[in-house]
Known about the structure:
mainly beta, four-stranded mixed sheet, four-stranded antiparallel sheet, 19 strands
Amino acid sequence: MNKKRLILMFLMLCLVIEAGMASAMEIYIHNKPLSGKILTQGDEIFVPAAELKKLIRGELSWSEQDGSVKANGNETSIKIMRAQSTVYLPLKAVASAMGYKVTVNKATGIVDLYQQKALMPGTSPTPQPTQAAGQTQPATASPGDSKGPEGPDPLTIVEKSSMEDGKDPKNAGLRIYALVTNGRGKDANNVVATCMLLSDGKVYNQKVENVGRLAAGEKKEVIFYFPAGWTQQMKHDFTVKGD
């Protein structure tokens, strides 16, 4: 067996190992599963560009001629990747350019994306302020507590029902239905609701849903979807916040 053949077999083995690792990964954007084959390269995750565009909020475009990518109308340094005639985009890089936060649960292989703040076309994510030495951060709400630093916040979330769906393997999992209510007396913007699955006081998984704008007195149903393996027997809690 010559040297070239050995090298080729080694490269093929590396691709098989990498594909196996990626196939165990599940990606959710706004609680909706992303379809298509997932590839990995180091810490970066590559997903089909067309499938990502269906779920991500904002303007996402790319050029197959020069490999460039635009996020919300802005030029980026992101480059496309082609594999088996499919255009792929680096998930974490695109998420950062479009104001999304990425959470990776290594234990379950689940990747969640949610929008930290809605961005208008032509805008970029606003850098988060840093904490100066000796400066204290404002108080934040704890799980299940919608009180802010200045007292109770009438932006609330309550559970309506939950169900396990095991009939269709493609849709098997746990769905938790909740109702978000704006009782502030004024509009609430950038409302984000979170559902956490708990065991022994620890958060084992969570889903984040971008509710968006809620008018004064408005109520909106939110559905949190957890894939197969999570059951109604697990305790869960909610948080909700908004501007």
